[in-house]
User: What shape does this take?
Amino acid sequence: MVDVPYDRIADVPPAEVPEVELYHPKSWWTQYVFSQDAKVIAIQYSLTATAIGLVALVLSWLMRLQLGFPGTFSFIDANQYLQFITMHGMIMVIYLLTALFLGGFGNYLIPLMVGARDMVFPYVNMLSYWVYLLAVLVLASTFFVPGGPTGAGWTLYPPQAILSGTPGQDWGIILMLTSLILFIIGFTMGGLNYVVTVLQARTRGMTLMRMPLTVWGIFTATVMALLAFPALFVASVMMLFDRLLGTSFFMPALVEMGQQLKYGGGSPILFQHLFWFFGHPEVYIVALPAFGIVSDLISTHARKNIFGYRMMVWAIVAIGALSFIVWAHHMYVSGMHPTFGFFFATTTLIIAIPTAIKVYNWVLTLWRGDIHLTVPMLFALGFIITFVNGGLTGLFLGNVVVDVPLSDTMFVVAHFHMVMGVAPIMVVLGAIYHWYPKVTGRMLDDWMGKFHFWVTFLGAYLIFFPMHYLGLQGVPRRYHDLGEAAFITPSVHTLNAFITVVALIVGFAQMVFLFNLVWSYFKGRPSGGNPWRATTLEWQTPETPPGHGNWGKELPVVYRWAYDYSVPGAKEDFIPQNQPPATRAVQGAAT
Amino acid sequence: MAVAIVLLLVAVGSVLFHIYSPWWWTPIATNWRYIDDTINITFWITGAVFFAVIAFMAYCVFRFHHKEGRQAAYNPENKRLEWWLTVGTAIGVGAMLAPGLVVWHQFVTVPADATEIEVMGQQWNWSFRLPGKDGRMGTTDVRYVSSDNPMGLNPDDKHGQDDVVIASDDLHLPVGKPVKVLLRSLDVLHDFYVPEFRAKMDMVPGMVTYFWMTPIRTGTFDVLCAELCGTAHAQMRAKVIVDEESDYRAWLEKQKTFAELSGRSAVKRATYESGGK
Assistant: This one.
């Protein structure tokens, strides 16, 4: 076995980064509300996403109550159940996770981690948030319009999404599509910013292959989002036309409740292709930032460089590229031409290889580390378990013939909640515990954090691991009531009730977390500038929280990669990226 | 220490749950045992990987958690180890993909002697159609759908006249005979789903989809809709009864053909028209 050293502090000659003229706020309004500071925008994104995410959390309680104890809650009928699952899914995937990872973490961390003063287009960045907020408000308004929100499922498959057999046909679906269109407009403004900032505004010495993996993850996810969201955009516009103008993009000739409708010639499967051409990359748009962030959490809290950095970068890029040619694995039983199955099963299983490399490198980073079991580290470990579990069940669903019996069952629900629900949220939570001190200058309470972790992790695992077996038995998804069927045994109802009870407990544990966020803001232990003794630039700012412009008079200069932890011969067990090599030589001589 | 034990317990508990789970697939009723076999192979491989990764992680946490004076090792890369793991993973993936594609090939290759039958979905019930004595089903179009002709058969197609139409009743199938199930929808997406059959496929308005299977045991099976189709999605039910050949024949004798069903209504219409004159 040959250990290859990485980046032996050699050449740092890139071009000078010119000074940026920033718009300095003149009033409270322009400092905290219509702010052009990426850090403030990040907080705005995060708070908005969390607020709408709480709505999704409540919806999940309501649908679990219905599933666990069908018939007990008279205020939940079939229509409402469908509206709950639709809004829960859409909010969690797009308005919470996408917005939080890219708009929240992206805005806060990209400029700080690459050593920039701000995003390159601060004004557009501000607009991005306000358009996002508008999208969220339009979405939330559907709870109050006649007919309520759409109940078409988060996939919004036509024809049913725009026909009268589905709740929310009047206003719900129109506003849902409008909201998605707004979201994409807002995201595009932000996304261009993140990409250009990473490519153009890195400080001296910050080569691409010295960027922290957090930036690599968010950057690649943003590029993917810029390529994938347009497919959803056109699909939304076309479906709006079908609904409002009577076009037939997705509508064949059909008979609804005995009435011949005027549609004809369209293809419902076309929508599915457009939706999943967006929808599958979307899974990785949520996953890649999580991959990047968790790499940095593990490395920092195990006091050890991330193992196989170059391979990690290439794995992120490879996953991003491959994720554009696997979309139809969501459509194995859609009725598309069956020969597609061979191609998409092969590409889908190939994507498991770079993904597995990432997992190996995370656990190999722990090997011979100095593992501090802090709250961020616990969440990182929780992420690895849930992600490995969810990733492996993806090999069932990706392998076309295995998908046939399992598709549209609770197995699918369990799989995607584990892999793109629980796992990324583990990272989000770990990341909040990790960076909260930088944002506020105070530590989150440790005891509440550990309680929050154990209840959330073990609870979520108890919810979703057994759920796979319900699907294996054949229990279909999107059923508000399983009704009578020979294969639905009494034990199915027992397990459903158990899952509901655990889900409520996990839900309430999040209240402890929210309390911690507020409590620690006022009463938390002051953190200092670099409480985790981390190497990356955001911990080296002159002020904590960092002021507008991030750095003092001069931008930091980067001399090394982001993972110089426990370097042999160094005095400390970490060397910041902006520490010049001369210092290191002196340290080496001193010991 | 405690953390390492909990992590290990999660891995061990998952394996034990798998072994002792009372929730397991339904007894299979068609020739698609190969699908179950492929699932089993996948369970073995993924289960081994899952246990190995989590156990290794738990060991690392146990062995290398922070103690006063511990220093982490510094080894940024190890090309040999990384390539070795990549190749190993590729082999594991191949071991699942190869049988999967072989079985998929069988799944999409309909045997020549398969009898065509038709299942039609609409909000929120099922209809069925069997070919008549000529062994062929007539053409259909949603434009022909009316209360007299709920499945939209072409009234001018001679192949359709002897088709057996089962509008609101259970479907019977003979055991041991391969069937190609043609799937059609009048309004929105549906999915003909019988857990014991393993095979399923969406039904899409505007096109005809299909799958094939050979029932291997007699019995009564619940039909559910597996693709969200609106308010009463969960109540869209029917039954499929797999019979011995003789029972199937007896049942088939009693069914009405399209001509019989529409003939009766044609007579009604004629009476009405002549009465009007």
In short: Chain A touches chain B through 117 residues (CB under 8 Å). The longest helix of chain A spans residues 78-114.
